[in-house]
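The following record pairs a protein chain with its ligand, adenosine monophosphate.
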Amino acid sequence: MERRALSRTLCVYCGSNDAVPRGYLDLADEVGAGLAARGWSLVWGGSSAAMMGAVARAARRGGAHTVGVIPRGLVELERADPGADELLVVEGMRERKALMDDRADAFLALPGGLGTCEELFEVWTSRYLGMHAKPVVLLDPDDHWDGLLRWVRELRSRGFATQTAMDALVVTRTVDAALDACAR
Ligand code: AMP
């Protein structure tokens, strides 16, 4: 209990789609194991599917406390995780994100789809606007996010994004580097 009270809680965003190649599930597994090895807790979207399920199961196997936050309307669709140490069923997406933000000490986005993008952009933009000071980290081992990052750099060069905004996101290639960045 004492260890948990003192430990860091990492919010992980990642894909919820079962169709993704096996390597992404392995990556999510590695992140779950890695955060547990550091004595951290997990807050995530509460799904047992795909990468989201893999990160939570690996975290629990490693002894981490896992907190899932899921809107009532997605409990079936996203297969809410019955193994979560805490499963918080909320009314909508805004409440989901607010609770996840509240619980988290840092945010880590893995490869994902539109939902992951949406979640990442909200914590990234609120960080560069100074609305919070928690680390916002992207783990991109295989250039999954390369198109997005190139577009954002283009926004910067065309004057639509500031250097402060660019600096507010830490992009990493390995699980260890990502977790180190989340610890800062
Ligand atoms: P995806 O990256 O599309 O597989 O989605 C990953 C997770 O993001 C899923 O649990 C989605 O329910 C969630 N998600 C999608 N849209 C939003 C949103 N607007 N706010 C919070 N979570 C979302």
